[in-house]
Amino acid sequence: MKTVRLKARRERSVLLRHPWIFSGAVEAVEGDPAPGETVRVADAGNATLGQGAWSPASQIRVRLWAFGETRADEAFLREAVWRALAVRQGMAERFDTDALRLINAEADGLPGVTVDRYGDTLVGQFATAGAERNKASLVDALMALTGARSFYERSDVDGRAREGLEPAVGTLAGAEPPERIVIHEGPVRYEVDVRGGHKTGFYLDQRDNRRIVAECAKGRTVLNTFCYTGGFGVAAQAAGAAAVTHVDLSAPALAQARRNIALNGLPEAELIQENVFQALRGFRDRGRSFGLVVLDPPKFAETKAQTEKALRGYKDINLLGLKLVEPGGLLATFSCSGAIDPATFRMMLAGAARDAKRRVRILRALRQAPDHVESLDFPEGFYLKGFLCHVE
User: Fold this and answer.
1) How many Cα atoms within 13 Å fall on the side-chain side of residue 328?
2) CA 271, CA 251: separation in Å to the nearest integer?
3) Could you say which of 3.30.1360.170, 3.30.430.20, 3.30.750.80, 3.10.350.10 is the CATH number of the domain covering 74-181?
4) Annotated active-site positions, please?
5) With 70 as the cut, is the pLDDT of residue 301 above it?
6) Cβ of 387: how many Cβ atoms within 10 Å?
7) What is the C-alpha to C-alpha distance for residues 195 and 232, in angstroms, rounded to an integer?
């Protein structure tokens, strides 16, 4: 097996079982491994540290599959899939849903591999060279172990370009999935477009937070910003919200939000196609207020270098959002930027509250749903954080 040898004293992160090896830690490569090929990783003295996927186009040159002397062969990968499924045993029943994340990349020991289940359809993203090279084996294992009817690929994520990979979309196994799949979270139903929707089609990581927001929504007027296909607002309306306003820039997303409202037999809601920042300023200027404001923006920071600019964006939108909450109302605010930690996000929110001249108390911290598991060895896997706040 070809070997990637590290520089002296650069093995500490591997010994702590972190799966990433950056280009600056590599001293030498013995042989000429192909992109995605499994290589042996050794320290400066040539002692084996583990086995991982070689990625020559990326700053992360190796993503480790296995540590120590464990062989990262096809049987190993199949067992990793089985372990990921075992962790989620009973979750669908416990959460009363037929939509679940089955593999959460590095947190499940499968770097670059993300797989969600919508009913009997699996939707996967293979974002790295190693995931791409082992895609067929992983799909075979998932189909066999889950009994799913089809596997649809959505490997159209930006990260593939950094791995030297082209986008890849289409059915990999089983039957062609329907144009739209209807899933449920408790009594609430949603349409999912696995071909053209965000991520794999839906934001399953917000499942628990949709329920929490819905529990607070009864009798309140709700503003659902960056609403995508209406998730938070539909759940709130189904739970008895007095009125819901959805705001998003995407006309197709709003059209699907309208279908989700109808799918649940709910009255029509206000749907506004506009840039959210502009819409919030317009509400402020017209003196409009809401009993519950949801701020669920897209990722503002991809890397640490973008953190300062992202925090300005987060502060701006939270300042505007806080000004729109009626006294005694609630704010549910989120960040899905992994580069921004919860403490920094909280400091930003405190600054926004001071500038808005509102007294804000945190009722609870919010995070990604439990099926989006986190590994203590890979803190980068904790990306979705938020707060439910009482605003005076």
Assistant:
1) 2
2) 10
3) 3.30.750.80
4) 336
5) no
6) 21
7) 22
